[in-house]
Design brief:
heterodimer; A: 226 residues; alpha/beta; Rossmann fold; eight-stranded mixed sheet; four-stranded mixed sheet; disordered N terminus; B: 294 residues; TIM Barrel; eight-stranded parallel β-barrel; 10 helices; 22% strand; globular
């Protein structure tokens, strides 16, 4: 498959070779642009072998849940990915739809099964009077767990959201929420599994800081394991 | 709390950004990468790039150009121009667009909206409507960059688009485009009341009080302008500082520079920022500004 390497990467960052999983619904270009700007080394692939080799993953996503799951199934990478994340505890960051597919199920355009990596289900945001769905735009967060994603995030920082569905899950794994009529899960965190409902690659400097936080976490883990 | 978005709508003609006046006259601005890099650093909330020749020339917006500009754009990027199939939309998203804007093809082929929202998710599908009043004084949608009358009422079509799964409505007044007279408030009020999805208003901004009018008097989620942002340094940041003085407006401030402590002139309704006192400016010269680190 497609394989790209960031030419700007230095020797120091070369170790943090992250795999951006391309399953044909993602806006992975935007994610790659952000990684290039930050100076990280990445690969783009949807091959089993690459997944088994990579030390960490980003699962981007823009699109509909069912389409995303069908593509993952057709690529035949679900088992490999689950094994690497659940057994080998490799870090993963799911973005938007990429976070939603980590859940057990979704009700977007009918009932669909997800990857089941985290406990929770994807459901439509409650609509109220004067609350427009999809939830599009910049919203501020209330952060429950600062480390490692929100370590350098300001209280008043805004992130860009664009979605009609969100994950309903146990409070213990929610690291940030935002308010749009009702409370919405903005970020989840459970050991090596991270997910953000907003788009860090499209949230200007606050998003870039968050991605930096994720990479620092990978680096720390690697030095601990070494 | 969700904020009002300040959107830059950039019109692309022959691969360069232009200012558009009434969908008829165009003034060249320059290379799209540069415009986008500046607006991105100056705290714009979203960028919409529309290739206004694409539909008339029966071609798709330049994909290579989208790829190039997306490298400079770390805010949401909506791309439009000559898109007729879901395959084209997928390709544009793969190359760095975040949302897709359809205009002529949505009106000629409404089922495309449903197909697109099923594959890409409705949050990704922006339906753009170019509207002006016809001879009978009623609002009517025009396609092909405002050249062709359709006889369709914009309110009816906006509701139909919502039912088919559109995620946002981008409404432009053709008569107000480039006029600097302010938004067509009657039009944006009518459309934003009619649908429950976000509505983006565009066309006619000449000074920052026009944004405030739209936010105060209608339920639009975002206010867009094209020509207004060009030729002024820090234009989005200064505009946001002005808008935030209106209590109804909810504005995002994440930029390094901040103009909220400035006052604004009222002279001739231009609302430029006031010059600070000489002593303040003198002091600023010797102030140390550390570099922003990400």
């Amino acid at each position: 498959m497609e394989e790209e390497q960031n030419k700007n990467s230095t020797k120091d960052t070369k170790k943090h070779d992250i795999l951006v999983i391309d399953y044909h619904v993602g806006n992975h270009r935007s994610v790659l642009n952000a990684l290039s700007l930050l100076g990280y080394h990445y690969k783009v692939s949807s091959e089993k072998e690459e997944i088994a080799k990579a030390p960490a993953y980003i699962l981007p996503g823009v699109g509909a849940f069912s389409e995303a799951m069908t593509n993952l199934q057709n690529l035949g990478i679900i088992d490999t990915l689950k094994e690497q994340i659940l057994n080998h505890k490799k870090p993963i960051l799911g973005i938007c739809l990429g976070m939603q597919v980590l859940a057990e199920s979704s009700t977007e355009n009918g009932f669909h099964k997800g990857l089941g990596i985290i406990k929770g289900s994807v459901m439509r945001i409650d609509s109220h009077k004067d609350i427009k769905i999809p939830h599009v735009g910049w919203n501020n967060l209330s952060i429950h767990q600062k480390d490692p994603l929100f370590t350098r995030t300001d209280e008043e920082a805004h992130f860009y959201f664009d979605h009609s569905y969100h994950i309903a899950c146990d409070h213990s794994i929610i690291s940030a929420t935002c308010t749009h009529g009702s409370e919405i899960t903005a970020a989840i965190q459970s050991d090596n599994i991270f997910g953000v409902q907003f788009h860090p690659e499209k949230s200007q400097k606050n998003g870039l800081l968050l991605l930096r936080g994720f990479f620092n976490y990978i680096k720390q883990r690697e030095s601990k394991n070494a | 709390m969700l904020k009002h978005r300040l959107v830059a709508c950039l019109t692309l003609k022959e691969r360069i950004i232009v200012q558009s006046i009434g969908f008829e006259k165009y003034l060249p601005i320059g290379r799209p990468e540069i415009t986008i890099e500046f607006l991105n650093n100056w705290g714009i909330d979203e960028i919409v790039v529309l290739d206004i020749d694409a539909t008339r020339e029966s071609r798709l917006v330049d994909i290579e150009l989208v790829q190039r500009i997306s490298k400079k754009c770390f805010v949401p990027l909506t791309v439009g121009g000559g898109i007729t199939t879901v395959e084209e939309m997928k390709e544009l998203i793969r190359q760095g667009a975040d949302k897709i804007c359809i205009n002529t093809s949505a009106i000629q082929n409404p089922p495309l909206i449903r197909e697109a929202s099923h594959v890409l998710g409705s949050q990704c599908v922006v339906v753009s409507l170019d509207v002006k009043k016809n001879g009978r004084g009623e609002y009517e949608i025009f396609t092909h960059s405002g050249k062709k009358a359709t006889g369709i009422n914009p309110r009816d079509f906006a509701q139909k688009a919502e039912a088919l799964g559109a995620g946002e409505i981008f409404i432009t007044s053709i008569t107000r485009d480039g006029s600097k007279q302010g938004y067509d408030l009657e039009l944006i009020k009518e459309i934003s009341r009619a649908v429950s999805i976000p509505v983006v208003a565009c066309g006619g901004v000449g000074n920052p009080s026009h944004f405030v009018e739209a936010i105060r008097e209608s339920t639009v989620s975002a206010v867009a302008a094209g020509n207004y942002f060009h030729f002024t340094e820090h234009s989005p940041m200064i505009t946001k500082a002005f808008i935030s003085k209106c209590p109804d407006a909810k504005i995002r401030f994440d930029t390094y520079a901040d103009y909220r402590h400035f006052s604004f002139m009222n002279e001739k309704m231009t609302h430029r920022i006031d010059k600070k006192e000489d002593q303040y400016l003198k002091d600023t010269r010797f102030k140390y500004h550390p570099k922003e680190v990400i």
